Amino acid sequence: MEIVFASRHESSPHAWVHALQQALPEHRVRLWDAEGPAGQADAAVVWAPPAGLFAREPRLKYLFNLGAGVDALLTLPGLPDAVTLVRMEDGGMAVQMAEYVLHYLIRQSRDLGRYAGFQAQAAWRPLDDIEREAWPVGVMGAGVMGARVAQACAALEYPVAVWSRSGREVAGAQAYGQAQLPQFLARTRVLVNVLPLTDDTRGILCRATFEQLRPDAYVINIARGEHLVAADLLACLDSGRVRGAALDAFEQEPLPPSHPFWADRRIEVTPHIAGASLMGLTVQQIAGKVRAVVRGEPITGVVDRARQY
Ligand code: OXD
């Protein structure tokens, strides 16, 4: 196979090409270049691929996305119908996301932010003991990421539920299906979003959702900015319905300096780092799939375009 690496955002594309070539010595891997030779690629490894890739590479059969979310890929102009899209299934992201969620969950449930304030005043002031039952976590999304997040919270004995379209079971968590969203929200205080972005999930983190959560709720969004209705979050923070939020993904990235989220002390902003695809694991996963495809075997992670993930 001839495999090209094509990304507008990757800061070290040569390192990716080198790692992929090392992992797949029996194939040819090269950096795609809008000006260079074209027309021979069978597969592309992409993240925000450059315009012109599809027009100049009509032989492409497989597109391996470097991330789990394929929302941006699905709306790319010129994306051919016949190309098989493959999303990253983990690539080291799931454990990082679990870590991220635990950090912000524990910061709330153990009042660690308040202790930081007390330290600034040299105040020795123990607060109430933790009651785990008061911190039920609800994870939206029960795929590889959602399951790992849910299991990490359950391992620390927080009550955990997962909500997904299919109602998929996750060990250690209570599973809710699509129609059970009201019941899922009513038992949740810490709402964690790891859903794929689709027509059905866009704007799902909105006032109607927040108002069904347990009082004094906390919101963690590590999926896409478009899941969140920013004005609704700010209104629910003002009304006290939601106590705070940790946000890693935004409609516009980088988040513009003038955005109200930056200065809001109730909101923790991070720059889309909750779950990065790690090069070694990602390359291993793609190489395994390329070999399976060549052997004519089925692979996992193939995107269902009608489902949008
Ligand atoms: C992803 C992401 O989709 O990092 O994996 O946003």
How does this model look, in words?
It is a single chain. The longest helix is centred in the first third of the chain and has 17 residues. Strand 10, helix 9 and strand 11 form a beta-alpha-beta unit. This protein has 309 residues and is an alpha/beta fold. It folds into 2 domains: 108 residues, Rossmann fold (3-Layer(aba) Sandwich), CATH 3.40.50.720; 177 residues, NAD(P)-binding Rossmann-like Domain (Rossmann fold, 3-Layer(aba) Sandwich), CATH 3.40.50.720. The radius of gyration is 21 Å and the shape is elongated. Helix 1 packs across helix 11 and helix 4 crosses helix 6. Strands 8-7-6-9-10-11-12 form a 7-stranded parallel β-sheet. A 5-stranded parallel β-sheet has the order 2-1-3-4-5, covered by helices on one side. The chain starts with a strand and ends in a 15-residue tail after the last helix. It binds oxalic acid (OXD). The site of oxalic acid has 6 residues, from loops. Oxalic acid (OXD) binds next to loops.
